[in-house]
Amino acid sequence: MSRVGIPRSLFYYYYYPLWKSFFADLGVEVLTSSPSNRHTVERGIELAVDETCFPIKVYLGHVAELCREEPDYLFVPRLVSVEARSYICPKFMGLPDMVRALVKDTPPLIDITVDLSCDEKCFKKDIIRVGRLFTRQASKIQLAYQHGCEELRLCRSLASQGFTMEEAIKIWEGGAMEAEPETDLNIGVLGHGYSLYDERISMNLVKRLRAMNCKVLLPEHLGSEEVEAEAATVPKRVFWTLGRKMLGSALYLSQREDVDGIIYLACFGCGPDSLIGEIIERKVRDCKPFILLTVDEHSGEAGIITRLEAFCDMLRRRRNCRSESKLSPYGVSLHSFENTV
Fold first, then answer.
1. Residue 291 burial (CB < 10 Å; 0-12/13-18/19+)?
2. Domain assignment of residue 34, yes or no
3. How many domains does the chain have?
4. pLDDT digit string (tens) for 123-180?
5. Domain extent at residue 284
6. Helix or strand or coil: residue 132?
7. What does the mean pLDDT of the chain come to?
8. Percent helix, percent strand, percent coil in the chain, to nearest 5
């Protein structure tokens, strides 16, 4: 039986159920790397050039880990566009080339090109080309891909029920669903999924907020139609798929009365993040409390925890001030009859 390795990073959080089901239906064993840890990051930093963004460095660390398992193939798609009139970060387009150049002794790469900006004809041909590495039956390949799309929709429906994509994948694979704890704050948390759902990159952001009695609202929990409608209100269309999703989610959350605040997680060195984060801050700061968290391989957990605790304390104090009175948050001045304090 052939074995295909899929790194647990980047597109894994968006499309893993699709590709795992696709390869499994073709009789292929799918290998995944372990969740990101300190060794993953250190290995990725050693391999990458300094200007590379943090998620790409982590991805290279996962590739190096999988190479030690000696799979027959490594699945590294060239992501250009996953929808019409929109594109993915240029680093995703060059990912197979970076892997070949930076990681030694890699197995053969399955570098299918995903470009749906115009039509799907070339993509469908590539699906058949990849499938024929394992079977000559075109009908079997088409059915495997259709099944993969169905499994992906199922996993995304699980995520919409209040889970992260990482948690939804675990449930999809047969894991247990954890009970939702009691909360007193509703906080919208935004960011690229490969940063937000990787617990090493985000430093357990979602879990830390839940431990602080916060209900976390993620882009996957929101209706796609509402998000797209809000994103369309900006003068110029955002042509990055993930950036438009983050902007639309932020605008939608900023109008919900039950949302207490919004957090945006950005990676230092990410060009789209720097622009989208700035646009979101300008759009929502008059509607909701907002905090921008920027992380990289040098970020420490203590600083993140302190900022999250301060943000949550501020939101609770803000809510209490609203419900109690309209007195100044700085206190009340007491004046005597002689107008002295």
1. middle
2. yes
3. 2
4. 888 999 999 999 999 999 999 999 999 999 999 999 988 888 998 999 998 877 776 7
5. 181-324
6. coil
7. 86
8. 50, 15, 35
Q: Report pLDDT digits (tens) over 219-262.
A: 999 888 899 999 888 888 888 888 889 999 999 999 988 888 99
DSSP code string of 261-325: EEEEEEETT-HHHHHHHHHHHHHHTTTS-EEEEEE-TT--HHHHHHHHHHHHHHHHHHHHHHHH-
Question: Please, what is the Cα angle at 208 between 195 and 259, to 5 degrees?
Answer: 85
State pLDDT tens for residues 302-330: 788 888 999 999 988 888 776 555 544 44
Q: Same domain for 7 and 151?
A: yes
DSSP 135-150: -S-HHHHHHHHHHHHH
CB 97 within 8 A of CB 80: no
Q: Are 50 and 193 found together in one domain? A: no
**CATH, residue 95:** 3.40.50
Distance of alpha carbon 290 from alpha carbon 280, whole angstroms: 9
